[in-house]
Amino acid sequence: MELIRGLHNLREHHRGSVATIGNFDGVHLGHQAILDQLRDRAADLELPVTVVVFEPQPREFFAGDQAPPRLTRLRDKAQLLAAHGAERIVCLPFNDALRSLTGRQFIDRILIDGLDVRHLVVGDDFRFGCDRSGDFALLTQVGKECGFGIEHTRTFALDGERVSSSRIRTLLASGNFLQAARMLGRPYSYTGRVVADQKLGRTIGVPTANVPLLSGPMALRGVYAVVTRLSGGREFAGVANIGWRPTVGTPRPVLEVNLFDFSGDLYGQIIKVLPCARLRGEQRFDGLDELKHQIQADQAQAKEFFHAWPRQMHNHDSDLTPYLASAPLASIPEHADPGVTRRDNDGTP
């Protein structure tokens, strides 16, 4: 896969492609269906599969912190697109120069002069250009004039419900990780490098691996039962805080995960963290003792959740679907024995 940043980096050998345009946030089953369309057409025409994306995403440019939270960072998005058949990804900076193009200018400069597109697949509701005059009808008209084909994407539904990035965001926010994974085609996850931090967790007996997150709107925020995959393939259950750590503070959001039954140094390692069940929202406590008490309760609740599934975590090929809750977990009473009380995967006793 080749990642090309900006039209100025396109070369003569990049001309001629079967292309699509969009945000592709999450690279969910609907996006994967579009890539299937592209691969079929690209095979017929013997041309590379090309995906055009924007950075920042248009709604982030216009709405800033009011934009919907991202499901995938650009790096993760590129890897997922490549895994589903994209051979070239053209990342265009969404800025004042791009937003000022009319619909016809967008087609001429990007699709024709830049990519020399031979076939384009987009949604029939796709709009572009500063005056929003660019639409499927204009693409069809110009395609006939300039010799490129155009077809619309097929709506992808799961259980009668349209798969979309916005629907997946809603599912994640509601704690329904099971249905979100079904729409994504994989469990939702965070991947990043463990960095040194304040190391306060060690002082209260709860060592954590910390992964910095991008500032901006967040798809998840709170405390979760998680599974963490290490670079060597081992998996560990655990509990994680995702957000701003209101008790101790942080200059940027962070994923802070405590791995059960693990000892060792993870600094500098790439880890993958899969939220499985929502335990609670972020809270500010009056001191470290109160925070420690709550973390112990969170650990007990997470252990109870994982104990309900008679399965041993083993390697990165494991199927995590049984571990994904379809609703936030109910609180565990202080007197409850985590080894006795069981819950189904929807969080109910």
Structure commentary:
29% of the residues lie in helices and 22% in strands. The chain has 10 helices and 14 strands. The strands form 3 sheets. The chain has a 6-stranded parallel sheet with strand order 1-4-3-2-5-6, sandwiched between helices. It has a 6-stranded antiparallel sheet with strand order 9-14-11-12-13-10, with helices on one face. The chain has a two-stranded antiparallel ribbon with strand order 7-8. The radius of gyration is 23 Å and the shape is elongated. The protein has helices at 29-45, 58-63, 74-83, 96-99, 103-114, 136-146, 165-173, 177-184, 200-203, 288-307; strands at residues 2-5, 17-21, 49-55, 88-93, 117-122, 149-152, 157-158, 161-162, 190-193, 209-212, 222-229, 235-243, 254-259, 270-280. It starts with a strand and ends in a 42-residue tail after the last helix. It is α/β, with parallel strands linked by helices and 349 residues long. Mean pLDDT is 87; it is low at 312-317 and 332-349.
Structural class: alpha/beta
- Biggest β-sheet: count, sense, barrel? 6 strands, parallel
Radius of gyration: 23 Å
Report how far apart the termini are: 47 Å
Number of strands: 14
Overall geometry: elongated
Averaged pLDDT: 87
Q: Extract low-pLDDT stretches.
A: 312-317, 332-349
Topology as H/E string?
EEHEHHEHHEHEEEHHEHEEEEEH
What helical percentage do the residues reach? 25-40%
Indicate the proportion of strand residues: 15-25%
